[in-house]
Automatic annotation (TrEMBL):
Residues 224-383 form the VWFA domain. This is VWFA domain-containing protein. SMART domains: VWA (SM00327). Pfam families: VWA_CoxE. It comes from Novipirellula caenicola. Residues 1-11 have a biased composition (Basic and acidic residues). Residues 1-20 are annotated as: Disordered. InterPro entries: LolB (IPR050458), Uncharacterised_CoxE (IPR008912), VWF_A (IPR002035), vWFA_dom_sf (IPR036465).
Amino acid sequence: MADSDSNRSHASETTTQRQARWRLVMGSGSEQLCGGLSPEQQRQEECLGFLYDREGRGQNVRGKDGNRSGSLDASSLTVPEWINQIHELFPKSTIERLEKDALERYQLDEMVTNPDVLARAQPNQTLLKAVLRTKHLMNQDVLKAAQQLVRKAVEQLMEEMAQQVSSAFEGAVDRRHRSFLRIAKNFDVQTTLRRNLKHYDPEKRRVLVETPYFYSRVRRQVDRWQIIILVDESGSMLDSVIHSAVTAAVFYSMQMMKVHLCIFDTSVVDLTDQIVDPVETLMKVQLGGGTDIGQAAAYASTLVENPQRTIVALITDFYEGGPAGRLYAAARQLVESGVTCLGLAALDGQADPTYDEQIAAQLVKIGWHVAAMTPGELAQWVAEKVRA
């Protein structure tokens, strides 16, 4: 009886999936025939409708009259948002077909054929992600324009993140020593008043401050520490890839630690020599493909100089394409050598992860720390480890 119930449940599930596929093919208006859609399937239908509903209207269809749409102006980011959604919702083969139809049949080609459109676009993270997802379709002239857009967006992000990282590593106030760095929050009010009393003006009843004094700050002894950042470049990790490249550049620019940056899919690419420029890093990322986390962890072990002063930050969704046993062996070797290991299921502004819980749980048993963090939280975590 149990087997019979299970078979009926499986058959019902298969029927439901089949109905949903037909609903996506037929579009809106087929609700009575095919039933409703899940929230994710509704998003898929919106993406398909954005492109294929043009057919009935004759809009943007090659060989037909119609006004072009899909501008990249700041007030309308329809095309970039559509690009990002299809990469989140569909498999690779479907994405390739959608992009082909968008470019060849419906002329939604502003982002990959028109450098003037990119030059006018306002930089933001939605547009940045869309550029990184379509750069393989761009010719050299458009790619140059796209790179300038990426640079502007990355510079904005670096300004936001630099303060978060520097605050996490800033030392405690040292009230025994003076500093020549005039930073408002280090202002020594009592010393400044005491040493400038000779400039008191009785008539105005004010102290004229000719020489302000500031506290110094104790610099953390982190120079001997090393951080190795491993970033999964699969399509679902794009937000984390962007924030990882920028975070690594900020760490490097502040000369707080010796920083390594590597991206990986089924192979590992060491980008440490380009870490100073996150734009160069991002333009080299090839989104999609397989994932071999074990190989990346093994490569990290070859970079370790002093295990007791090394942090490995693995940024991935933990969906392992290679043998899980090899990943666990490499992960265990790092822990047993004395390396501090952190697995991040997300590194972005929201820290909202989707990941393989089973593999993440196994890494925790081995001795890894596993979390989802914003860049500021990562900086705080690293600072706590190196000051311990």
